[in-house]
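Q: Structure for this?
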Amino acid sequence: MSDIVVTLPDGSELSVPSGSTVEDVAYEIGPGLGEDTVGGVVDGDLAGTAEPLEADCELRIITEDSEEYLTVLRHSAAHVFAQALQRRHPEAKLAIGPSTDEGFYYDVAGVDLDADDLEAIEVEMDEIIAADYDIEREEQPREEALAIYADNPYKRDILETEAAGDDPVSFYRQDGWRDLCRGPHVESTGEIGAVELLTIAAAYWRGDEDEDTLTRVYGTAFETESALEEYLERREQAEQRDHRKLGRELDLFSIPDVTGPGLPLFHPNGTRVLRELEAFVDGLNDDRGYEFVETPHLFRTELWKRSGHYDNYVEDMFLLDVKDEEYGLKPMNCPGHATIFDEGTWSYRDLPVRYAENGTVYRKEQRGELSGLSRVWAFTIDDGHLFVQPESIEREVTAILDQIREVLETFDLGYEVAFATRPEESVGSDEIWAQAESQLRDVLADSGLDWELESGDGAFYGPKIDFAFRDALGRDWDGPTVQLDFNMPERFDLTYTGEDNTEHRPVMIHRALYGSYERFFMVLVEHFDGHFPTWLAPEQVRILPISDDNVGYARQVKNRYLGEFRVDVEARSWTIGRKIQQAHDDRVPYMLVVGDDEEAAGTVSVRDRFEAERNDVAVETFREQLRAEVDECRVEPDFVDG
RNA sequence: GCCAGGGGAGCUUGGGUGGUACAAGCACCCGACUUGUAAUCGGGAGUUCGGGGGUUCGAAUCCCUCCCCUGGCUCCA
């Protein structure tokens, strides 16, 4: 048998016989490591201890100390769930049960489960864990495996796809129960310290709407009970920052039944924030040579037929008949902007043309998709469309990424970047795709951003760069985006006259810095836990008179010195402690406490929402520093510290 | 659209699985207190139980149906 070369994480190379398993290699490195091995990562893919290595590869051994250990353990927990399920419901057919970032799930068919079943199954799981069964890998010939799953179309499907080939396939066995599985797994069920089943959902086999509907059970598992409790605790805390909860408490917005689903109302407090957000992004667009345009919310469907939305997107559009003619609320702003461009005649000297609009769009998303402000039926995009020569894509996209970065840095947000390339079905020539993708690649390389390639995930009309935010509950939402479009210019027959005096087709760039205002607002609320930076805060300062006698002075401070800010005077006859409590609850950045002493001295006592205090401050001093904090869009109140 | 869970004062909730909706805290209104850095005290008003239909002498409760919310799935030009 020939040797293969295994490259280890430290760069060293090990020559082993082809067909050696992960565990063999671990023992080769050291007996102690061999003993501790629970699996390996082969060329980036998780593999079991008994995975045979047939070719040169990179290998990292996983032990109980590795990050991946939890992944392995959760996969084993999924098996424990499946065994427990089949103990109680032998008729259940297993489909697929992987681990996820937060735990695991198992898709099953042939059983109806409800919340009570989960509890019973959890008890069964605890028994299996307490029994500490060994988990053993075994190999079966393919024919044998197919026979085992004679009445399980899902496992047979797996055997014919992922596990296709002539080699025997692996099963993992515990207590006489077994499951087709690539592994790896922990050594015995007792290693799973704590499990919890979380929820039931419907899922489609292979994620395909046309395939069978399966029952998906989500759960999570940890090495210890305390780690599980910590996780559940963290989840509860995350729920405290949920924008739907804070939105109500801080009186920012509401989505009442009476107005319809996914149609949010922004209250005065929320609208104050939105207006600052608009002003900020309008400023960025102004600086970068955008022209502002305004378009209506409703167009003849002629326009949507021209843009292609009517063919591809009509299911999600709100349509209405007006005097025997069909109109549609706009799901996107681009057709309007393309039409504005089309109304003009352009020379290459005029390009790029950049249009910006805070445009509200309407998309009839599936009902189950609506969620707070993150997925709604009506939302406003800080939309921008650029009409550029193909050769200037790189320069324009660079400028857009700069804008996006300025936004992200200003708000101190975490994000992930994805570069999505040409899908199988697409419009536009090979040349223009190649040129555009290579330009985007260069831009990304120069940007220094960490990004992931999502090959084939681009829009049919062009490649794109997407930025995603994570909400308080760990879900990712698309935010800023840059998309190239070769389709719309065709459909609208957009042209400009080139240097060579012939007509050329511009490339269109769709871009948004926030994405949707609603969603961005959601991200900010959760990111700051309602503690908006002072420049955004609905109420920036609240003046708290010690007694009713000081209300007059409080109003004077507000009107004479702080008229340029959003300031309220707390005039209720509460104790000062109560007023402070309320201001904290309302997350007002600054409280100015004024009593007889301050009134006599013409000062204020400053307290910020994080409890820091500074007494006997001249009002003018406070005003100046507040001005600077707001102008510089500082994220945290820093008057007291600074 | 699919699966599961849910819907009662403005909010957060406890109780009520066929017999007049029983309530708590906060918020709100009234009164007293005039307060020095994270909830002063007392009183009052407010919910026909998501909508509609059915069964019943009687429905928040049982049945049907619709709406909405939550978590997932799918979708996401």
